Automatic annotation (TrEMBL):
Pfam families reported in the protein's UniProt record: TPM_phosphatase
Alphabetical list of PANTHER family matching this protein: UPF0603 PROTEIN YGCG
Entry protein name: TPM domain-containing protein
Keywords annotated in UniProt: Signal
Gene3D superfamilies registered for this protein in UniProt: 3.10.310.50
Residue span(s) of domain TPM: 25-145
Cleavable signal peptide: 1-17
InterPro entries the record matches: TPM_dom
Keyword Signal: yes
Length: 338
């Protein structure tokens, strides 16, 4: 009798989830209202500009078999029906069962193979969820999803405006499931026994090259001499994931040869061609030991939109000397000429 009652309650929970908010159904109450508002804006732009319908469901009762639950919800919620094909993504979070699953629609399986989905769940989503930052973890995960889609568009393997699909079902069970201990604590940031190889350098170019090695080695030690004092304080509190470092490494490797260094009064900016909207500039300051990266200032002054394109949050700061020959629109996005 008890088992039958549990099955009934579980079925009701899935039915309620299937009938909830079109974008987000947080039945466990893990996300704040501001987080949900930001995420809905992101989801709306994802649908309008990239023809991908992303839905997020947070269950309040564990279904046990999350794979079956994901397929059931995918169909019941009609995820992907608002696209030009079966281009839906479901992020299903099961706090009680300590597991998450991303279910991928048929017409996105080529872009998001199971191995990639498992990677972003474990290397991006899990650290945020373990720290109790559910909304931030979802946003950070979606950033990687968008990056993957934009790469496919550049390669010509994905065309948002073209019709696709015509399939009987929206999902065939593609995706991945990962174990996640939600709100179990912020992941440790191990200190290096010998960090001398990651010290401030004699030039901004050399410091940026050393930082590329930081990314390649996935070093998360916040006390590196390569960082300014404010940046060290910033990184002590900031969550850094393997996936974030891998993503930044790929971008920096692709653009470091195009970097232009501009210096003024103990500050430097390494900027990339204005047309490379995904390659944000790096700010550095000069100290007694050499040139140090100033991520503390970058985190305040540089933002990214839903397509991972950078913009200035403010045009009134001491690093603007490096952009005198550029102009910025009302949203802070850079353009050639002044």
């Amino acid at each position: 009798m008890k088992r039958i009652l549990c099955c009934i309650l579980l079925s009701l929970s899935l039915l309620q989830a299937a009938c909830g908010d079109r974008y987000i159904d947080d039945r466990a109450g893990l996300m704040g209202s501001d987080e949900q508002t930001r995420l809905r804006t992101f989801q709306d732009k994802l649908l309008q500009e990239l023809d991908i319908e992303l839905q997020v469901v947070v269950l309040d009762t564990s279904p046990g078999d999350l794979d079956d639950a994901a397929v059931t919800l995918f169909e019941k919620r009609g995820i992907g029906e608002r696209t030009k094909g079966a281009r839906g993504v479901l992020l299903l979070i099961d706090p009680a069962g300590r597991q998450v699953r991303m279910e991928i629609g048929y017409d996105l399986e080529g872009i998001f193979p199971d191995a990639f989905v498992g990677y972003i769940e474990q290397r991006q989503m899990a650290p945020f969820f373990e720290a109790g930052r559910i909304g931030a973890g979802i946003e950070a995960t979606v950033e990687l999803v968008v990056g993957k889609v934009l790469g496919a568009i550049d390669e010509g393997s994905y065309a948002p405006a073209e019709e696709a699909g015509g399939l009987a079902h929206l999902s065939g069970g593609a995706g991945a499931r990962s174990t996640v201990a939600i709100d179990s604590g912020i992941p440790a940031k191990p200190r290096l026994d010998d960090a001398s190889g990651f010290a401030a350098q004699a030039s901004p170019e050399q410091s940026l090259a050393v930082y590329l090695e930081v990314l390649r080695a996935r070093v998360k030690d916040p006390e590196l001499g390569l960082y300014s004092a404010d940046t060290r304080a910033f990184f002590r509190k900031w969550l850094v994931t393997d996936a974030q470092q891998d993503n930044e490494r790929r971008t920096l490797e692709a653009h470091i040869g195009q970097g232009q260094v501009l210096r003024h009064d103990g500050r430097a900016v390494v900027r990339f061609p204005v047309t490379e909207r995904g390659a944000a500039p790096y700010f550095l300051i000069r100290g007694e030991e050499g040139w140090m990266l100033d991520f503390a200032s970058m985190s305040i002054l540089v933002g990214f939109n839903h397509r991972n394109q950078w913009h200035m949050r403010s045009l009134d700061h001491p690093f603007m000397f490096a952009f005198e020959d550029w102009r910025f629109d009302q949203h802070g996005f850079p353009h050639a000429g002044n």
